[in-house]
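[Discussion] Sanity-checking designs against the backbone

I'm trying to build intuition for which residues belong where. Below is a structure token string of 292 positions. I'd appreciate it if someone posts a full sequence so I can compare it with mine line by line.
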């Protein structure tokens, strides 16, 4: 899934550690686009105007920022329009097997389990959540041993039950499976994910769901919050984002390969969803590539 175009970071975490934490005050962001095996929780204060890249998602951040990045997901922060000379960044990294599957299946950990699953696309937390938890995150390195592990778990639990968390990257960018607690919807999404490069009609997906078209339209909107065409475009954009980063294929070819019937339609939908045109999106990534 990963390519050599993006730097793979070998973190300082050893197999016998639970997590690492490092905090620093700096004038700019200078670490390139990268990925690693570990989960990362990143708290950034006083960096309004910096740019966050997570998977296929790009966004300019506000004064406070807290993001949870799942294993092997591309990410980086860039100075962009940030004027601050006093950026505080606290980065916590922990092993992907710190909490094993059986542990996470317990009732009391269901929220944490769900959050870790969603972090495969990257999660950003609301300002209210950040202000409620930032002091505890910043003080975590003052604790030691078992107390620090308990506090990390407590912080993760509080994050997992917080309101208004936002998933960042498209599911198809990260090859994530779709789970909507509905076998009908899952079958439809599987079909769209396999056939995104072809023409897909409402009639054909309604047939897969074994429902009349009008009923299926209402059903998918109720279950996912999106219309059929929005859902399909999101899948196509995820694949297109990936191709823009991982290949030198022209934008026009990518548009057609991802099922868009013309390039202006592709550009318009891409800009509406990602706040930039495909060419600018590609430049954001290629400008920060490291070949190793």
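Best answer:
Here's mine. Compare freely.
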């Amino acid at each position: 899934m990963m390519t050599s175009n993006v730097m793979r970071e070998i973190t300082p975490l050893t197999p016998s550690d639970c997590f690492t934490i490092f905090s620093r005050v700096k004038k700019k962001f200078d670490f390139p686009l990268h990925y690693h095996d570990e989960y990362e929780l990143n708290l950034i204060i006083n960096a309004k105007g910096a740019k966050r890249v997570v998977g296929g998602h790009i966004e300019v951040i506000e004064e406070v920022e807290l993001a949870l990045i799942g294993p092997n997901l591309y990410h980086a922060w860039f100075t962009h329009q940030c004027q601050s000379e006093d950026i505080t960044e606290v980065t916590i990294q922990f092993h992907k097997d710190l909490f094993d599957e059986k542990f996470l299946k317990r009732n009391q950990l269901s929220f944490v389990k769900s959050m870790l699953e969603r972090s495969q696309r990257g999660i950003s937390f609301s300002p209210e959540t950040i202000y409620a938890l930032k002091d505890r995150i910043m003080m975590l390195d003052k604790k030691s041993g078992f107390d620090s592990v308990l506090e990390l778990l407590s912080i993760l639990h509080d994050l997992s039950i917080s309101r208004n968390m936002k998933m960042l990257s498209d599911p198809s960018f990260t090859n994530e499976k779709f789970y909507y607690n509905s076998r009908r919807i899952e079958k439809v999404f599987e079909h769209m994910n396999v056939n995104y490069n072809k023409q897909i009609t409402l009639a054909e997906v309604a047939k897969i769901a074994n429902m009349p078209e009008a009923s299926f339209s209402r059903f998918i909107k109720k279950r996912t919050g999106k219309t059929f065409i929005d859902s399909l475009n999101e899948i196509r954009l995820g694949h297109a984002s990936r191709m823009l980063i991982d290949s030198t294929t022209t934008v026009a070819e990518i548009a057609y390969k991802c099922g868009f019937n013309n390039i202006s339609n592709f550009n318009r939908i891409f800009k509406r969803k990602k706040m930039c045109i495909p060419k600018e999106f590609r430049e954001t990534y290629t400008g920060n590539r490291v070949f190793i």
